Amino acid sequence: MFSVTGSVSARISHFQAALQRKSFSHYREPFAEDLTFTQAVKKYPDRNALYAYMHHYLWHVAPAEIRDHRSYFSHRRRGFGEDAFHAMWWLLLREYRPRHALEIGVYRGQVTSLMGLIAKLCAFECDVHGISPFSPAADAVSKYLKRVDYLEDTLASNRRFGLSAPQFLKALSTDTIAVEYIRSRAWNVIYVDGNHDYEVALADYKVCRDALAQGGLLVMDDSSLHTDYSPAKFSFAGHPGPSRVVRELAFSELRFLGGVGHNNVFTNT
Q1: What is the DSSP annotation of 23-62?
Q2: CATH number for the 27-267 domain, one of 3.40.1160.10, 3.40.50.150, 1.10.600.10, 3.30.420.10?
Q3: pLDDT tens, 128-142?
């Protein structure tokens, strides 16, 4: 009886989330303007309003190529994340035009290929790098598909969008070779989306913080539990590990630029 009740509850919750997502996706005239990331944060200082703007932006303002990219990765669990994040990345990278970009925790290449696609559409040079085990290696809060060749799958996605292959290092972010790789240059943008356990998230944050170029961007995923973000039913506020790192360190050590859902964007200027 418990499993049947739980199954029904899950279906109801899924249905409610789908309805709310559809509602968020409706065209709304007040959101129908093309702002920079900086302008959007200034106009919508409330996290929930900013999230609604970003979600709307993807489906009604962003280039069709960005929507198609999100649709591709939404299908068959090719990628996680939320629609608003594609708009966030488009606005961020279009405004800041990073030369050197790095993602910690690539999974199947949604964000690394999105970075390459945005650079292509905006006509700026961006060498994209990623560090990942390219395996089903999980943590305390995540489980991943086992019968997937993660590296080949990621490379195939880049080919699908007509992009050159990013430079990938197959390793855990805490491996010595990975730490040295991160320290090997000054990065203009780093996306920390690796292991969610506190100790690993903390180590990733520290080494990435120190490897930022002046004025570089550090984007912390799954890290909004201790903020005033109230997620919609189809959204998610984050995990304890990254959220604790952001609360204890990032907000005091870096300059906060804005938060879109469970993504928080910082700079070191």
Answers
A1: HHHS--GGG-S---HHHHHHH--SHHHHHHHHHHHHHHTS
A2: 3.40.50.150
A3: 999 999 987 766 667
